[in-house]
Structure to design on (294 residues):
């Protein structure tokens, strides 16, 4: 019987621990950690994500602030807002919700955030530190959240063969770097697969731990998975579903029902990796904050 890696439960438990740490710092006379989310435009999914991040801030006792700007804001004006936040000592973490309107360079915006406040972990300095195995950098929130989920459920990567499918800069590539790092959550032998990988199933079938981040609903079928493997499904795609009030549901990259009987553990979609991304963000903010008062 497979263990379902419940990201909502793990997130709730980790956030309780974060809340306790925040209380202890505040009791010593320190201000609460400050996290700002910038939201540009009216995109529905972005509003939902930012809303969930604000709720998480309230749960753990952070001063969470959402700064909203119209889609018509210029790149220059947005960069000026980021610089203001960079200079504000009371703000520990800053995230800019992506995607941004076409006339604004996401790359410029990402690189404008002070690396020490980049709690999404997307800045080149943080990616560079990750590539070097330097623990001092801020880790990308989704891969970091996945390591927190694995730790919560006692899943060791050490010495295992991990296969990561997808090499994006926000999930697949940093995931491969974290799990291969000489660090408590790492020490795995990692294979990174992508759209040019030939005979993908031959690799995925070798995985003790399979991390899938493609954005293709149901792509990983039961014959692509080894008996007893751990499967982490990062994919979240909206698919039409007339039986839902919303008209859609979220679907992972793994054919969950077919794969479930074969594996030792698996994340569901939703309520698997999703809540852990926010937990990674909360943990990054706590670490940046604590470093200031250490
Ligand atoms: N739960 C969360 O918190 C969270 C966070 C972030 C992302 N996501 C979800 O995770 C999924 C992936 O996101 P992303 O940003 O990493 O996506 P992305 O930037 O589109 O990258 C997709 C990756 O999959 C690879 N790929 C595509 N088709 C393939 C195939 N047939 N065989 C092997 N590899 C293939 C691509 O290879 P190439 O590089 O060769 O093109 C690429 O590296 C999406 O569903 C996204 O919504 C979820």
């Amino acid at each position: 019987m497979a263990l379902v890696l419940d990201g909502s439960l793990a997130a709730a438990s980790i956030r309780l621990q974060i809340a306790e740490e925040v209380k202890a710092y505040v009791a010593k006379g320190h201000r609460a950690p400050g996290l700002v989310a910038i939201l540009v435009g009216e995109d529905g999914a972005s509003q939902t994500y930012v809303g969930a991040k604000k709720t998480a801030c309230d749960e753990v006792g952070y001063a969470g602030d959402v700064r909203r700007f119209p889609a018509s804001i210029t790149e220059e004006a947005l960069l000026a807002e980021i610089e203001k936040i960079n200079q504000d000592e009371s703000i520990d973490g800053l995230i800019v919700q992506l995607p941004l309107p076409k006339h604004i360079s996401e790359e410029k915006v990402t690189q404008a955030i002070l690396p020490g406040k980049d709690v999404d972990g997307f800045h080149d300095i943080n990616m560079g530190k990750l590539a070097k195995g330097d623990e001092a950098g801020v880790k990308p929130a989704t891969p970091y959240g996945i390591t927190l989920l694995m730790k919560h459920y006692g899943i060791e990567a050490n010495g295992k063969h991990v296969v990561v499918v997808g090499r994006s800069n926000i999930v697949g590539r940093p995931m491969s770097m974290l799990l291969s790092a000489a660090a408590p959550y790492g020490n795995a032998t990692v294979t990174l697969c992508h759209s040019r990988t030939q005979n993908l199933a031959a690799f995925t079938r070798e995985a003790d731990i399979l991390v899938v981040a493609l954005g293709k609903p149901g792509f990983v079928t039961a014959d692509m998975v080894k008996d007893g493997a751990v499967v982490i499904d990062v994919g979240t795609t909206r698919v039409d579903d007339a039986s839902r009030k919303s008209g859609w549901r979220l679907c992972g990259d793994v054919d969950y029902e077919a794969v479930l009987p074969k594996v030792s553990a698996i994340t569901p979609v939703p309520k698997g990796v999703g809540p852990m991304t926010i937990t990674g963000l909360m943990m990054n903010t706590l670490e940046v904050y604590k470093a200031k008062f250490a």
In short: The two ends are 44 Å apart (CA to CA). The pocket of NAP is lined by residues 142, 165-168, 170-172, 193-197, 200, 213-216, 234-237, 273-274, 277 (CB under 6 Å). The domain at 140-274 is CATH 3.40.50.720 (Rossmann fold).
